[in-house]
Amino acid sequence: MRFSVVLFAALSAATFGYAQTSMSGGDATFYTAGVGSCGFTNTDADFIVAVDVATITSFPGAGANPNANPMCGRQLVVTGPDGNSVTVTVADTCPTCAPGSVDLTPTAFQQLASLDVGRLHGISWTLI
Question: Signal peptide: which range, if any (predicted)?
Fold first, then answer.
């Protein structure tokens, strides 16, 4: 019985430790890629995302070294207001993004809207 309780507690902690796995109502913008806060060198042709500071720094396991952030290397599916989506890899932090908003490479942004849009309102994302 004790083993069952311990196992249940461990599984519950693992499941609920990553509670912030989706957001909605944010904006998507695009930026010129380079060396991101995760320590990866990226190009504008890569399908990467910079996640807002509040989300990435409060993610379970996040510490002082942004290169070791557990969100780094994970994938998000970002969905635009029209229902089109793009899968991107977390590689950077967006210091100017509001919670729930993301900064994409131009290539990734173009999967959701034309670059002429500049800022796409009403996006959602899910961590996969």
Answer: 1-19
Q: Judge contact between 127 and 86, C-beta under 8 A.
A: no
Q: Which CATH architecture has domain 22-127?
A: Beta Barrel (2.40)
Burial class (CB in 10 A: 0-12, 13-18, 19+), 119: exposed
Q: How does DSSP classify residue 119?
A: S
Largest CA-CA distance found in the chain, in angstroms, rounded: 61
* 21 Cβ neighbours under 8 A, 6+ residues apart: 126, 127
Write the pLDDT tens digit of every residue in 23-57: 999 999 999 999 999 999 999 999 999 999 999 99
Our measurement of the distance from residue 55's CA atom to the centroid of its chain's CA atoms, rounded to an integer in Å, reads: 8
Name residue, tokens 């609920």: 16
Is 6's pLDDT higher than 70? Answer: no
Q: Can you tell me the distance from the alpha carbon of 118 to that of 48, in angstroms, rounded to the nearest whole number?
A: 17
pTM for the full model? Answer: 0.82
